[in-house]
C-alpha cells in the first residue's frame, strides 16, 4: 500500500449485516446465519484476495452447536487471517437503553467466547446498525480490548461531526478512534455506484475510508458479482487505491493520523427517537432482568464465601438471554409482533435462572443466622443489595393458615429491640384473614438485618402522615391534588419554603403521533391530542408509615390510575401507575412543570450522565433525569427535582417542563414510507394494561448532593425479605459485607470471575469528580484505598486466598494493570 497522505485509500469491507430478529423471528435469523456463513466460506475458497468481516458471538455460538463442521471451517479461516472478528460483543445491541453493566457483559461474554473458541479477541467495536451511541461507550470499549469503533447512525443529517474519522472520548478521558460509515453498511446490485459515492467522501476522512459492501439485513454477504466489480475497478479509479480489507487493517493504517483527528465529546444521537419508548413491555423486562441478575450475583457471591453455597453455574446463560434481547431491533421495539412472544420467553428463562439463584443464596444466608426460639415471634431477614445503608419500604403478607396467622395485636422490632411503626394495608390475596404489613426497614451496606414480629400489644403511638382525599403532608412536604386535572397542584417544601411545581404536575397528556415505529423523521412528540381527566380521587391509605391518594383518570377508551404515596420518614413521593391503553397512533406523556429558573438538565446514561438542552427533543435516559436551577426572582437558592423510574427510557424537557414518555402506539414494524390505511385493523403496540413506578425526589442544592443515583438504584433493586424461623447459626442477626466511605462511588457488580473461583468487584464514580475512596471487604478481610478519575469504571480481582494480592483488571478480566495490594 502506498504511503498515507500521498494517495487516497479505499478499504473494501466485505460483510453481511445480519439482523437475527426484525421482520422475522429468531428461528429464521438462525437459518440465515448458517446460509450467510456458508456463502462467505465459499467466496473465501473462490477468491484468494477476498476478506470477510463479521461480528456477534451469539451467531458463532449457534453455528458451533448446530453445524460443527462449518464451525471448524470458520476457525481455519480466522487463523488464516481472512475471516475477521469485529465487535467483540454477544450481539449488536441498542446502544442507549441497556445498562452500563449490560454493555460490560456484552464484551465480557463476547470477548471471552472469541478467545476460548478462536484464540482471538476483537480489536474493533462494531455496531453498524444501532440507532445511536451513548457517550460512555469509549471507556467501555477501551476496557474491553477495543480501541476503535465503527458505526453508521446517526447520519450526517442527524448529527454533525467534524469528520468521518475522529477520536471519540468519554468523560473519564478514554478515547477510541471512530469511523462513521458512508451511506450504507450493505449493498445489493449497485456496488459500482456505491463505490463512486464513497470515493467522493474520501476528503472527509483524511483520504482513508472504509467502503462496506455485501448483501445485508437478512444476511447474504458479498456476492461473486460484488467481488468481481471490485477486482475490475482496482487500478481504474485514478488516485484512489482499492483493496480488499477489514476494519482491523483500516484502523491500523490510520494510526499515524491520530494526532490530527478532531475529538468528539458527546453522545452520538439522534436517530429513531421513537425507539426510546416504544414497546413498554420489552423495555420493562430488560430493566427488571438486568437488576435481578445483578442482585442474584451479589448475594450468590456472598453466600459462596460465607456459607459455602455453590456459586451458580448458569448465570452466564441467563445473561446471554438478556444480551440477545438487547439486539437493536428487539429492545428498540421495531420487530414484528410474534418476535416479542419469543423475547418474552427468553426473558422468562433468564429471570427464572436469576430468581432461583438469588433465592438459594438468600435462603442459605438467612438459614445460617442464629435466631433464638421465642413463642409468638416471627423473624424476617431483610437483605440490602446496595453498598450503602438504606431506609426503604418493606412489605410482608400474612394470614389464613394456622402457623401464619397474623395476631390481632402485634409489634415489629428492629434488630436492636426498638419498636418501629407499621401499618396494615390491602392484601394482594382477596380472601379473609389475609393481611399485608408495610414498614420502613433500615439496612446496613450490602448486608442484612433481622426484624421481628411479636404478638404483643404496642406501648407506643406514632405520628401519622396527614391524608385527605386531596392532600398529604409529612414533616417536610405538603402535596395537593388538583380536583379538576387530577395532577399535583402543589408540592411544597415546608422547610425551605419552596414550591416545586408551577402550573400543575403529574398530568397525563396524549400526543398525536403519526410517525412509524422508529419515529423516523421526527425529533419530538408535542402535538397535543388531549388530556386525561379525573373520574375519581380518593384517599387509599393513612398511617404512621405512609399516606396514599389514588387518582383514576380517563381519555377516550383509556384509563390511567396513579397511586401517590408519601412516606412519613422519606423525602420523596412514589407514584405507582397502571395504564389501560386503548388508543392508536398516539403517545402518552406525564408532564412535570417545575418552578426553577436558569435550569440545567441532567440525564443518566449507562455508567454516567450528560447535560442536554431544554428544546423539547426526545432523549434517552436510564434510571433518572434531573432538572436543577435557581428559585425565586431575587433568591439564589439552588433547588432541583429528580424523576426516577423503573422501566422508562424516553423523556423530553422543554422550557421548565419535564415530560416522561410512558408509551407509544404505532403499528408493529411500520417503516416509512409505507402509509397505513386508517380503516385497517393493524397490530398496534402497547395496547392493554401496563404498570410502572416513578418517584419524585425534590432536593436542595445539586442532584449529586441529593444522591440521586443511589435513590434510583434503590427503586430498581429492591430489598429482599425472607420470612424465617428460629434456628442456630454462625451469622449474627445483622451484618454488612462491603462498605464504601464515599457516596459517589457505587458498587455495581459483585460476581465470580469468569475463569477462576475468585471474586470480581466493579465500582464506578458517579459525580464526575476525582475521588479517593476506602472500600472495606469485611468478609474477605481486606480494606482498599482506591483512586478514581472522573466517571471512571474500576474492576478489581479478589483472590480467594487471602495471602494472594488483589489486582485491578479490565472489563474482560485480563489481569493487566498490576497489583493493588
UniProtKB/TrEMBL annotation:
Cross-referenced SMART domains: Alpha-mann_mid (SM00872)
GO process annotations (BP): mannose metabolic process; oligosaccharide catabolic process
Entry keywords, A to Z: Glycosidase, Hydrolase, Metal-binding
GO molecular function: alpha-mannosidase activity; carbohydrate binding; metal ion binding
InterPro entries: Gal_mutarotase_sf_dom, GH38_C, Glyco_hydro/deAcase_b/a-brl, Glyco_hydro_38_C, Glyco_hydro_38_cen, Glyco_hydro_38_cen_sf, Glyco_hydro_38_N, Glyco_hydro_38_N_sf
SUPFAM superfamilies xrefs: Families 57/38 glycoside transferase middle domain, Galactose mutarotase-like, Glycoside hydrolase/deacetylase
One Pfam family cited in the UniProt record for this chain: Alpha-mann_mid
Domain of life: Bacteria
Gene3D superfamilies found in the cross-reference section: 2.60.40.2220, Glycoside hydrolase 38, N terminal domain (3.20.110.10), Glycoside hydrolase family 38, central domain (1.20.1270.50), Golgi alpha-mannosidase II (2.60.40.1180), Golgi alpha-mannosidase II, domain 4 (2.70.98.30)
Domain Glycoside hydrolase family 38 central: 270-347
Similarity-based family: Belongs to the glycosyl hydrolase 38 family.
PANTHER family given in the database record: ALPHA-MANNOSIDASE 2C1
Protein's UniProt name: Glycoside hydrolase family protein
Organism expressing this protein natively: Neobacillus vireti LMG 21834
Amino acid at each position: 500500500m502506498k504511503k498515507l497522505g500521498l494517495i487516497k485509500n479505499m478499504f473494501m469491507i466485505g460483510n453481511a449485516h445480519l439482523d437475527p430478529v426484525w421482520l422475522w423471528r429468531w428461528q429464521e435469523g438462525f437459518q440465515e446465519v448458517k446460509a450467510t456463513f456458508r456463502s462467505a466460506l465459499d467466496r473465501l475458497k473462490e477468491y484468494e484476495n477476498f476478506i470477510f468481516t463479521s461480528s456477534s458471538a451469539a451467531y458463532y455460538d449457534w453455528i458451533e452447536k448446530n453445524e460443527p463442521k462449518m464451525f471448524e471451517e470458520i476457525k481455519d479461516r480466522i487463523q488464516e487471517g481472512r475471516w475477521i472478528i469485529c465487535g467483540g460483543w454477544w450481539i449488536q445491541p441498542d446502544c442507549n437503553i441497556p445498562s452500563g453493566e449490560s454493555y460490560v457483559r456484552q464484551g465480557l461474554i463476547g470477548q471471552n467466547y472469541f478467545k476460548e473458541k478462536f484464540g482471538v479477541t476483537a480489536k474493533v467495536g462494531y455496531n453498524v446498525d444501532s440507532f445511536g451511541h451513548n457517550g460512555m461507550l469509549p471507556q467501555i470499549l477501551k476496557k474491553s480490548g477495543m480501541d476503535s469503533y465503527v458505526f453508521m447512525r446517526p447520519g450526517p443529517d442527524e448529527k454533525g461531526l467534524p469528520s468521518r474519522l475522529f477520536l471519540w472520548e468519554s468523560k473519564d478521558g478514554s478515547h477510541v478512534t471512530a469511523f462513521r460509515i458512508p451511506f450504507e453498511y450493505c449493498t445489493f446490485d449497485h456496488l459500482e455506484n456505491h463505490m463512486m459515492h464513497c470515493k467522493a467522501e474520501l476528503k472527509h476522512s483524511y483520504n482513508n475510508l472504509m467502503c462496506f459492501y455485501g448483501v445485508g439485513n437478512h444476511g447474504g454477504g458479498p456476492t461473486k458479482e460484488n467481488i468481481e466489480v471490485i477486482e475490475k475497478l482496482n487500478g481504474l479509479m485514478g488516485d484512489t487505491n482499492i483493496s480488499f480489507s477489514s476494519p482491523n487493517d483500516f484502523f491500523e493504517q490510520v494510526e499515524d493520523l491520530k494526532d490530527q483527528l478532531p475529538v468528539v465529546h458527546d453522545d452520538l444521537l439522534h436517530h429513531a427517537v421513537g425507539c426510546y419508548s416504544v414497546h413498554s413491555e420489552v423495555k420493562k423486562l430488560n430493566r427488571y432482568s438486568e437488576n435481578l441478575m445483578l442482585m442474584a450475583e451479589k448475594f450468590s457471591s456472598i453466600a459462596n464465601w460465607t456459607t459455602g453455597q455453590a456459586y451458580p453455574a448458569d448465570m452466564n446463560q441467563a445473561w446471554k438471554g438478556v444480551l440477545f434481547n438487547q439486539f437493536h431491533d428487539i429492545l428498540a421495539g421495531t420487530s414484528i409482533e410474534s418476535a416479542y412472544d419469543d423475547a418474552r420467553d427468553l426473558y422468562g428463562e433468564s429471570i427464572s435462572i436469576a430468581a432461583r439463584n438469588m433465592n438459594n443464596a438468600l435462603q442459605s444466608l438467612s438459614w445460617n443466622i442464629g435466631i433464638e426460639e421465642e413463642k409468638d415471634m416471627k423473624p424476617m431477614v431483610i437483605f440490602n443489595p446496595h453498598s450503602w445503608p438504606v431506609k426503604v419500604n418493606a412489605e410482608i403478607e400474612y394470614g389464613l393458615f394456622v402457623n401464619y396467622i397474623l395476631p390481632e395485636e402485634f409489634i415489629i422490632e428492629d434488630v436492636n429491640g426498638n419498636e418501629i411503626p407499621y401499618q396494615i394495608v390491602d392484601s394482594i390475596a382477596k380472601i379473609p384473614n389475609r393481611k399485608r404489613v408495610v414498614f420502613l426497614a433500615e439496612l446496613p451496606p450490602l448486608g442484612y438485618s433481622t426484624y421481628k414480629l411479636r404478638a404483643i400489644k404496642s406501648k407506643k403511638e406514632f405520628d401519622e402522615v396527614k391524608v385527605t382525599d386531596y392532600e398529604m403532608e409529612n414533616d417536610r412536604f405538603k402535596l395537593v391534588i388538583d380536583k379538576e386535572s387530577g395532577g399535583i397542584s402543589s408540592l411544597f417544601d415546608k422547610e425551605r419554603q419552596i414550591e416545586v411545581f408551577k402550573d400543575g404536575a403529574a398530568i397525563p397528556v396524549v400526543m398525536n403521533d403519526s410517525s412509524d415505529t422508529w419515529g423516523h423523521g421526527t425529533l419530538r412528540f408535542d402535538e397535543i391530542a388531549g388530556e386525561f381527566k379525573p373520574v375519581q380521587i380518593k384517599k387509599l391509605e393513612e398511617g404512621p408509615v405512609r399516606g396514599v391518594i389514588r387518582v383514576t383518570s380517563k381519555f377516550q377508551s383509556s384509563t390511567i390510575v396513579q397511586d401517590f404515596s408519601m412516606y412519613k420518614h422519606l423525602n420523596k413521593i412514589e407514584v405507582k401507575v397502571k395504564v389501560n391503553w386503548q388508543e392508536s397512533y398516539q403517545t402518552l406523556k406525564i408532564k412535570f412543570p417545575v418552578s426553577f429558573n436558569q435550569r440545567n438538565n441532567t440525564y443518566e446514561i449507562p455508567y454516567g450522565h450528560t447535560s442536554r438542552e431544554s428544546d423539547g427533543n426526545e432523549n434517552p435516559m436510564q434510571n433518572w433525569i434531573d432538572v436543577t436551577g435557581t428559585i425565586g426572582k431575587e433568591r439564589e437558592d439552588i433547588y432541583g427535582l429528580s424523576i426516577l423510574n423503573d422501566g422508562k427510557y424516553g423523556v423530553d424537557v422543554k422550557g421548565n417542563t419535564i415530560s416522561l414518555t410512558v408509551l407509544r402506539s404505532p403499528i408493529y414494524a411500520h417503516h416509512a414510507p409505507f402509509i397505513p390505511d386508517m380503516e385497517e385493523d393493524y397490530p398496534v403496540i402497547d395496547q392493554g394494561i401496563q404498570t410502572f413506578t416513578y418517584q419524585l425526589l425534590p432536593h436542595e442544592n445539586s442532584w449529586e448532593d441529593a444522591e440521586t443515583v443511589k435513590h434510583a438504584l434503590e427503586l430498581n433493586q429492591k430489598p429482599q425479605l425472607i420470612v424465617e424461623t428460629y434456628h442456630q447459626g454462625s451469622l449474627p442477626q445483622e451484618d454488612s459485607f462491603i462498605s464504601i466511605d464515599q457516596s459517589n462511588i457505587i458498587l455495581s457488580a459483585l460476581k465470580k470471575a469468569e475463569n477462576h473461583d475468585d471474586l470480581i468487584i466493579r465500582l464506578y464514580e458517579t459525580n464526575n469528580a476525582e475521588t479517593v475512596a476506602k472500600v472495606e471487604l469485611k468478609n474477605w478481610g481486606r480494606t482498599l484505598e482506591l483512586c478514581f478519575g472522573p466517571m471512571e469504571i474500576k474492576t478489581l480481582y479478589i483472590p480467594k486466598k487471602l495471602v494472594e494480592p488483589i489486582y485491578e483488571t479490565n472489563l474482560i478480566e485480563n489481569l493487566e494493570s498490576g497489583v493493588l495490594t
